[in-house]
Amino acid sequence: MAEEHDLVVIGGGPAGYAAALYGAAAGIDVALVEESKLGGTCLHVGCIPAKELLETASVLRTVREAGAFGVEAGEPVVDLAISQSRKQGVVDNLTKGLTGLLAGRKVTVHAGTGTLGVDHTVTVDGDEPAVLQAPHIVLATGSSPRTIPGFDVDGTLVVTSDELLSITEVPERVAVIGGGAIGCEFASLLADLGSAVTLLEAMPEILPGCDVDAAKAVRRAFKKRMIDVHVGVSVHGHDPSDGATTVRFGEDGAVGVDLVVVAVGRRPRGDAAGLVGTRVEVDERGFVEVDERLRTGEPGVYAVGDVVATPQLAHVGFAEGMFVVRDLLGEQPTPVDPATVPWCIYSHPEVAFAGMTEAAAREAGHDVVVSSHRFIGNGRAMIVGDTDGLVKVVAEKDPDGRAGRILGVHLVGPWVTEQLGQGYLAVNWEATVDEVAAFIQPHPTLSELFGETVLSLTGRSLHG
Questions:
Q1: Where in 80-217 does DSSP place strands (E)?
Q2: Is 443 a catalytic residue?
Q3: Burial 291-323 (b: 16+ CB within 10 A, else e)
Q4: 369 and 316, same structural domain?
Q5: Which of 48, 124, 133, 144 is CA-nearest to residue 89?
Q6: Are residues 322 and 353 in the same domain?
Q7: Active-site option among 44, 110, 236, 443
Q8: How far is Cα 73 from Cα 86, in angstroms, rounded to an integer?
Q9: In this structure, is residue 343 part of a structural domain?
Q10: Do 131 and 7 belong to one domain?
Q11: What pTM was estimated for this model as a whole?
């Protein structure tokens, strides 16, 4: 006999466990099926471990540059074994907390692979097999690292993000293939740890999808840090020899390295839940096809997170998980708008943005006005000794030719991932330049540069 629930969620990553926790908080009976570890990619081989190691890099930079503040600390040495232990401690604590939350809200958790079949039946294949049924199903089967031809992942010479996040020795020379968010974070991390890094990106600029001025600011900063960036190049394979290898790229480029990091994005696992006998469709890229309300072709079955063609971000997964619960409860929530979600990249310098790039706004037909200010003139940035980067605000001209609604906010620089909040709210509340400029920014802060940038769009500025 099948185990009956109100909702069965297949996948325990951010999108899946958000649906489970939020559904349970709403008073419905939820079962969650996870084939690996609760928390998914984000908690175990993604957001959390990557940012923990990037924090190690940040501490290393701080100690290395302490002499400029009159603090003599000598040349710092990284013990990656200790850093990895600390990382694992953070992951374990968060996993324990998540497990406790699910238990506290009486979510039934099944360890095993969940397969969706006819009549909303989910079969769990694991140490304790089970059959579950519910009127509502959420598919949250996540993603896995993409690979590319000619670079077979062996976990030693060629790795993806999964393997890199467990390294215990710093490689002397590294090629990072892919200059998107993941690739730039890894290039930044490895350069700070002491590796000679070559970053290879097929597109004309690193960080595709970012505003071009933001991407250029990061590339300039990388150049100052001796990261060798090549854009507009494809890779053609590599030639291993004596524990190292030579990566071939572009027309006649080649670089000898001790490690190759393949960071070309993640592949959705759309078919991971079986789906035989259902009307759920998976496209040629591996994404589950959904409408704007995240409903599949099978009534009562939703899909969320990395497995749908929306930004593959944990916080988007959280939002989608909560959205589908509200939708199945008949509350008519507003769908998540992929075009206005917040993005954060934890390289050095950091990148954060929400809304339209200048180019996208013009392509959409908007008559835009733009303001940009650099952190080099910001007092707090000078104080902390980190002045690379800028704030750029894209606004729509109103009928009088003045700057009106804010369409996009783009930040590069120190701690901008913690500063995006007011820019994100401005974009999503469709605030105008005049409305935002009226708010007082505390001084001295990094965030006042956003206020200064918006203020200049009113036609009058203070410091800029």
A1: 108-111, 113-116, 121-125, 130-133, 136-139, 143-145, 158-159, 173-177, 196-201
A2: yes
A3: eeebbbebeebbbbbbbbbbbbbbbbbbbbbbb
A4: no
A5: 48
A6: no
A7: 443
A8: 22
A9: no
A10: yes
A11: 0.96
